[in-house]
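Support request, please re-run this one:
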Amino acid sequence: MTKEPMSYLVKEGQNYILIKSERCLSIKKVAEKLDVHVTHAKKNIVTLPDFPKPIRYEDKSHPKWLESDIDYWLFKKKA
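Re-run finished. Output below.
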């Protein structure tokens, strides 16, 4: 049996966005999702004040971003 990803609706004004998963993305996966180079993502995108904050499992671990946070950020950028 496979586990279905979590999904929920978020209302933003009069629009809704379907958040499909809670996967954690590395900087490489974030860059792929945004269709930019990893260096551009590190220097110019994740440093934006409105970009979602990363999570860390341990103090010295590499940062990870929730895919749903990235999806929501993209949705807000398009609106």
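The chain has a mean pLDDT of 83. The longest helix spans residues 67-78.
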